[in-house]
Amino acid sequence: MFIRKMIGSIAFSLVMLSAIAPFSSSAATDTQNNDTTNQQTQTQQNDNTTNSQSSEVMPRVILPDEDRTQIKNTTTGHYQSVGYINMGDNIATGVVIDENTVLTNKHVANLSNGDMTFAPAAKNEGSFPYGEFTEKDVQAYPGQEDLVLVHFNTNDKGQSVGDVVQPATIQDASSVSKGDPVTVTGYPGDKSLATMWESKGEVLTNSGTQLTYGASTFGGNSGSAIFNANNEVVGLHYGGVEGESNNGVALTGDVLDFINENKK
């Protein structure tokens, strides 16, 4: 299953779907397709779960105990490393982890066609404190995990993205366990365009390759950093199970080795 334009989902396996949002100032609709030619358009109010099985990873999951807060001072602390991704028809999230490197999802990079732009610490549609950076190249994790490193060109002043913001600190995900507090920070498509939101929750499970957590997300949160209590990145959000949890790639083992070997 492959999905192109959506607030919703791209499948990287039979049931693994993830969340991006269509680029629109009103964010009025979201689209979920079964292929690139057969599309089903819905309003954001339709959660599209009527025919979904409970175990299916969905494009976005608002949980009953939703705790999302807008981050207005985006240029402080760890928030500055989180950025708004624009791909023309779709939007998503990424996090700066080195001088020229941003971490996001494979399905996000697959939609960009080399035209991704990244605005670190974006405040809203009209306020990009550190400007925008253009995509240079992509290195996708060779395994199943929905993770990719995107390297960006310098800006017109010759600055790298890691020169204008402090890259996030990564902590091995083996350090978090059930009950630990986490936050998912990004640019959900059900809020005003290019506004940063933080969602709070707790780790539900840590399988060693995947984290599940009780923090709500929406389309546009694809590629959002999962921060631990020390504001270190331990995972990368990609989707969730409706009414149960959200899911992310655990940054540990081979995944963490890949990141450290290819960031620059």
Automatic annotation (TrEMBL):
Keywords: Hydrolase, Protease, Serine protease, Signal, Virulence
SUPFAM superfamilies xrefs: Trypsin-like serine proteases (SSF50494)
Catalytic machinery residues: 107, 146, 222
Family (UniProt): Belongs to the peptidase S1B family.
One GO molecular-function entry: serine-type endopeptidase activity
Keyword Protease listed: yes
Protein name: Serine protease
Chain positions covered by the region annotation Disordered: 26-69
EC number of the protein: 3.4.21.-
A Pfam family the protein falls into: Trypsin_2
Keyword Protease carried by entry: yes
N-terminal signal peptide: 1-27
Entries under InterPro entries matching the protein: Glutamyl_endopeptidase, Peptidase_S1_PA, Peptidase_S1_PA_chymotrypsin, Peptidase_S1B, Peptidase_S1B_tx, V8_ser_AS
BP GO annotations: proteolysis
Regions of compositional bias (Low complexity) in chain numbering: 29-51
